[in-house]
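Figure 2 data, in text form.
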Amino acid sequence: MIHPIGTDSEQVSVYLDDTYLEEVDTRVIAVGKRDGALWAAVERCPFHPQGGGQPADRGWLDGEEIVPVRDHESGLVVAMAPEGGSLPPFTEGQPVRARIDLQTRMLHAALHTAGHLVEAMGQRQGWEKVGNNHFPGQARIEFLLPEAETRLGDPQGRAEATAALQAAVAEAVKDDLPVFARNDGAGRRMVHIDEVHAVPCGGTHVRSLSDLAEVTVTGLKVKKGRIRVSYTAEHRSV
């Protein structure tokens, strides 16, 4: 929860509790401008802003298409018009309906969860994650190349490592491991893949690995001391 400046209400990021929540009835708790463009923030916020390697949701506020953005001055997730558009003026306290594009959300959640899974299986190889991107068409996890990791210096070794990663990912999906979030002792939101993996994360995720489809390790490259593992994933039809 975030306490916005100048209001008596808290913004609740409901997308953290339910990836599949498509719309909520809520109210405007703050309005303002960013680079001259109007924004509005709602009390029960279903909109995931871009961050943590995950792209922003596509959404609507009372039928007006919006893009959620983290406003660093207030700390709020605010709804803004897409580039080139404009929002009508909203007022504090105004009842509104907030809705996301659920199909887009499900794709983002699938890619993000699959990224954690690839990270987990890379760690089993003794690799340390140093970067990630969960965008469609760009999804990858980057690991620090250990000095002792000599097999990746030739094409056959890289092919074997890629096949091993793919097999481990496929086995975990087949086992339908649960995916859930819990706060740790420091109050951080930790996303777990059963007992296999846990990492601080503010993204959206599937309910269990059986929700994932077409999880494929599409490439493994080594460059400048890093291992880049590219992957794809879809959400199983519901």
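Caption note: The helical segments are 102-124, 155-174.
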